[in-house]
Amino acid sequence: MKFFNKRIGFSLLMLIGMVWGSMAQEIIKDSVRTKPPVSLAKKQKIDGIVAIVGDYNILDSDIDKALIEISSQGGSIKDITRCQMLGKLLEDKLYAHQAIQDSIVVKDEEVKEKMNQQIDYMLEQTHSMENVLKFFKKNSEDEFRTELFDILKMQKLATEMQHKIIEDVSVTPEETRNFFRKIPENERPIFGAELEIAQIVVKPQVTDVEKQAVIDKLKQIKKEVQEGASFTTKAVLYTQDPGSRSTGGFYKMNKKTPFVKEFKDVAFSLQEGEISEPFETEFGYHIIYLEKVKGQDLELRHILMVPKVSDEALKAAKERIDAIKKRIDDKSISFAEAARTMSDEKETRANGGTLINPKTQDTHFELTKMDPEFYAQVSDLKSGEVSSVIADEDAKGNKKFKLIMITNKIEEHPADYGKDYTKIRELALKEKQLKAIEKWSDQKIKETYIKINGEYRNCDFTNNWLKK
Question: Is the separation of the CB atoms in 262 and 285 below 8 Å?
Fold first, then answer.
């Protein structure tokens, strides 16, 4: 839930695949080599090393695990060769290796934060650390955390390197038009059915009594800590922030860290060793204990508590949205006007409830790419039809009720330059980005120590990994 401006969600399935595909990676600690170490021949036989990219080894078992990852996500591996899979692993390691050479900084605190969030999520799914260790075949929690930390750091390095390669790549309208003209008419992409959607949201109101109960509890915790209790222990017991619960509410931050403004304002107003009074953000109520100030960085711990929504408040919210729906059904008010005057969702209220697709930043939602839960809510609606009242939760776990209406339905169709300019521009941009990556890869492969061993030297790679 954490108090970032955007909530980060995780998929256990993707995480399992990631760990399978990377847990056996070994990072060689010395600098970039121009020749392999003397002991490499013996090491290959022991460890099954099939390739080296700069400071990274790839094991034969990593190819197996990467194929398992694809299968575990429902993909077909029938037409994927081991050579193709190795090629993908080589690309990943080249990105990470070059990120280090380019001095791309990935802060350990960011990696640790993501690691804690993923472990918390796994614990929710498996119910105990023992089950997690058993699944990943690890002997101890320390061993698991250490290896997961290294995996996440490597992934972050690779991601940052890819971003750096393409960050300045853009396409002009003329380039977009030329891209589209070069596609033969009978080969133009087919865009799937799309919806434009509006919604009205009603949120239960937290009573002043519930708010005061949380404030009083936080004040009591502060008093107990000032009398000698451990803030860390209190955070483990009481905080409702899963991203920091396992570390006793710990975060390291500076003024550029993307925390909400209210949190940062309080954090930077404290003296070292001071505990704040309870204060409110969009996530609930907090207290902060400032442990240390290190230059521009703060090391702090916090406790987040969220006021409970009473049954009476839930009932009142349900009655309010029922009344709104009745007025819409009776045509005494339009959906858009109801959204503008009665919806509790400020992000969509001004636009008559119209939703913006966060992936494309336009109003179109392609059916085949929708979140499954959202798809289930809208897929059976006709254009202009209003849904029944839907009980839902927002990104922070707060309950709400909503009405959904399909304002426009666009059927599946071949790409049309006028109607689908945004999508065509994205395709043109992706093509240009791919060319930039190909050019970068060709150059870095020439400059980087790369070794392919054994039967894999017979592979027909897309990239020139063998430097022929």
Answer: no
| CB atoms closer than 10 angstroms to residue 234 | 22
End-to-end CA distance of the chain: 51
- The answer to whether 461 and 445 have CB atoms below 8 angstroms apart is no
Neighbours of 348 (CB within 10 A): 19
Task: For tokens 């029944």, name the residue.
Answer: 388
**Whole-Å CA distances, 98 to 32, 89, 103, 301, 403:** 10, 14, 9, 35, 49
Round to whole Å and give the CA distance between 27 and 138. Answer: 18
Dist CA 35 CA 54 (whole Å): 10
220 CB contacts (<8 Å, ≥6 apart)?
none
| The two structure tokens encoding residue 193 | 């059915």
Chain position carrying tokens 């798809």: 375
Residue 165 token pair: 């390669």
Neighbours of 350 (CB within 10 A): 11
Classify strands 49-53 and 56-59 as parallel, antiparallel or unpaired. antiparallel
Greatest extent of the chain over all pairs of C-alpha atoms, in Å: 83
Q: For the chain, 468 residues long, give each residue's pLDDT as a single digit of tens.
A: 334 333 323 333 334 444 434 443 333 333 333 344 333 333 434 448 899 999 888 888 888 877 876 775 667 888 888 999 999 999 989 998 999 888 888 888 888 888 888 888 778 777 788 888 887 778 888 888 888 888 788 888 888 999 999 999 999 999 999 999 999 988 998 888 888 999 999 999 888 899 999 999 999 999 999 999 999 999 999 999 888 888 899 999 888 888 899 999 999 999 999 999 999 998 899 999 999 998 888 999 999 999 988 889 999 999 999 999 999 999 999 999 999 999 999 889 999 999 998 877 888 888 878 888 888 888 888 889 999 999 988 766 778 999 999 998 888 889 989 888 888 999 999 999 999 999 999 999 999 999 998 889 999 998 989 988
CA nearest 91: which of 142, 161, 26, 149? 161
- Does residue 317 sit in helix, strand or coil? helix
Which strands, in side-by-side order, build the sheet including 399-410? 365-366, 194-202, 399-410, 390-393
Pairing relationship of beta strands 49-53 and 450-452 according to DSSP bridges = antiparallel
